[in-house]
Amino acid sequence: MSTPSPLGTALEPLRRDAGGAAAAFTVDPADPVLAGHYPGFPVLPGVYLIEAADRTVRHWRGGGPPVRLTAVARCQFLHPVYPGDRVVTEVTVTGGDGAELICRAEARTARGKVADVRLRYAEEAR
Fold this sequence. Notes:
Thiol Ester Dehydrase, Chain A; six-stranded antiparallel beta sheet
């Protein structure tokens, strides 16, 4: 059973190649989470950026063996993301050995880099 994504179906794949992938989404100003995060100063919760990075990795995998996210090895939020911002997530495969996959993700808006994320995955048996 899949869990609903905070991004819904709004993630737009931009590219995919051997070294990584990119995808984008626009922060919906009507998203109800913004009303409570934070009242009077709405910003996108950081979990959305982690979710976007994870979904970009899964886009990169395409039809390859399924993977399971095992760790958010690093997550640094650098600047707020506001309602209406377009966020582009770039994922690069930085290494891995055997069944472990290590990915680096950067999220950017028109104002620059907003997050730096490192994710670890395990390949699952088909």
